[in-house]
Amino acid sequence: MTKRIVVLLMCVAVALPMLADNKIANRLSESTAVLQTILDKQEIPKNVMNKAVCVLIYPSVKKVGIGLGVSYGRGVLVCRSGANMNGPWSAPAMYTLDTGSLGPQLGSTATDYVALVMTKRGANKVLSGKLKLGADAQATAGPSSAQATGWNDPNIDVLTYSQAKGLFAGASLGSASMGSDDTANKDLYGKDVNASQIIQDGVVQVPPAGKPLVNLLTKYSPKYM
């Protein structure tokens, strides 16, 4: 019996890291698919993306509730590298999203979000590991292609885009809180690294699971303009 318990514990010890790796790989894959879909729909104008210094993607954020809804999701952050944040796209950092919304709600939904960080001020807040929209950074719904000509508002730190599945179309991030998912980052890179080290210090290379996302961003917006 003791030998069986030891064998079982060894199997669990081996399986847990594999499960964590699969979850992170799936998150990166789903984030890439969400961004690809939104770009294919031309929901995010190219000239707006070219001005973004960071991109946050949250696939399938769940919301359930009647009267008071709560949303929670896990996503990915990628920024332009370099001291001035105008270089090639960085390795991805894992992030969380936590938000509440008031108003009548019935049923449940999953919503994909993409947030473009447009200012270095906003990027510094994001890279600090914790950001609350409205309090730490000014956010608004991103312009469509028809509205994007000449868009330039230095007072707006974050532009948000979403695509809803289910009953809640047009969902908004509102006063969402975004934070670094340090546990997932450790699982992805095999060591304790925070968002700033990943993005700004370049202490890690783009992992294989993150290359499709970085390649997509590089293809759509190769240069900061």
If you had to describe this structure to a student in words, what would you say it looks like?
The chain is α+β, with helices and mostly antiparallel strands and 225 residues long. The protein has one domain (2-220). Helix content is 34%, strand content 28%. The protein has six helices and eight strands, in the order ααββββαββββααα. It has helices at residues 2-40, 46-49, 120-127, 182-189, 195-201, 211-220, and strands at 54-64, 68-79, 93-102, 108-117, 130-132, 139-141, 158-166, 177-180. The chain has an eight-stranded mixed β-sheet. A hairpin with a 3-residue loop joins strand 1 and strand 2 (68-79). Helix 1 runs parallel beside helix 6 (211-220). The protein is globular and about 65 Å long. The relative contact order is 0.21. Residues 11-19, 101-107 and 166-171 have low confidence and may be disordered.
Poorly predicted runs of 5 or more residues? 11-19, 101-107, 166-171
Count of the separate structural domains: 1
User: What is the gyration radius calculated from CA atoms?
Assistant: 18 Å
Helix content: 25-40%
Topology as a string of helices (H) and strands (E) = HHEEEEHEEEEHHH
Instruction: Give the number of helices.
Output: 6
Number of strands: 8
Class per helix and strand makeup? alpha+beta
Mean pLDDT across every amino acid position: 81
